[in-house]
């Protein structure tokens, strides 16, 4: 099974045996995994951020490591270090938890900025340097980081360079009453339900093959222009001190391809881009002084920017479909 749509459906159905709601977040994780990206999840404690990551890893059979980020965690605790073995009289490399397919950096904004930066090379280059030795990380490799809202005590806001490394960011909200009722009923009938109940439904080899399928998804020139219009609008906004970087444009491109593929299409539509825009942008843009003083949020401003950018017309979307069929 190397079809992106089939892979996503299998992941969605299997995680749904434990998880209630949050299907959009599972979709985002699938998009990042299919494009070599990383995902940031934000929410108050107890909304299943860690559980979502664990469930997702188990459905694919990924080697999974969870790092509980606290102020006393050091960079070497993440990447690893050389340890002297007295019995052989030599130093031996002790690899850290970063050497896994899926690394969960839990409560990343409780770690110090120095420790947070230890993830930068791994996330961007797929490798780490330990005391002068550069080592490649396994493939696939993905970081899912969770963070508490920055208003909570004992948190450090992620630096701009760190946030920009995350392809997508999702807010994990408190469940609706109906969802929470269903959750209670499910665990009442099966108290032992846990991530360990999940069955692997996707093989890593199929996942890597699906990545190639995603790369072949068609993106029309007019859709590229729509991406550029959105990114340019963030840079020109008077409410933002800094708009989105070129890395955001690439995130739109790659995530748009993956979203199209998991929904059974061979071409990206403007709707793919608009749907992903908040998740691509809210952690990248930096509020200006006026926006901060007036209590405006990034989510609110990004929404206004999207409304200000012309959406390609229905005729253009028909042109995209026609061009995709011609290219194939």
UniProtKB/TrEMBL annotation:
SMART domains: AAA (SM00382). Residues 35-176 form the AAA+ ATPase domain. Pfam families: AAA_3 (PF07726), AAA_lid_2 (PF17863). InterPro entries: AAA+_ATPase, ATPase_AAA-3, CbbQ/NirQ/NorQ/GpvN, ChlI/MoxR_AAA_lid, P-loop_NTPase. GO terms for molecular function: ATP binding; ATP hydrolysis activity. This is MoxR-like ATPase. It comes from Halogranum amylolyticum.
